[in-house]
Amino acid sequence: MAMPTFFVQECPTCGRNLEIRVEYLGRTVSCRHCRGQFVAAENVAPPPRAVTGTPSSLLARADELLALAENSRLARLMPF
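Predicted structure:
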């Protein structure tokens, strides 16, 4: 039995490297991690990631996201 052949493509939504079967080239696929959808294409250069804002605004946004994650975790532990 032949083993499937894969290629690696970065998810444009979450940035994870995904192994995709070559049979899916040209088809719309979904990331298993974030559920983002994209077209499977070999040798795709990742889109440039622009850094916007000042370092302090980026740190503030990171703090917001960490607080949201913590609140979500606590809500799952203590459902009302």
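Summary: The chain has one domain: 6-42+52-77.
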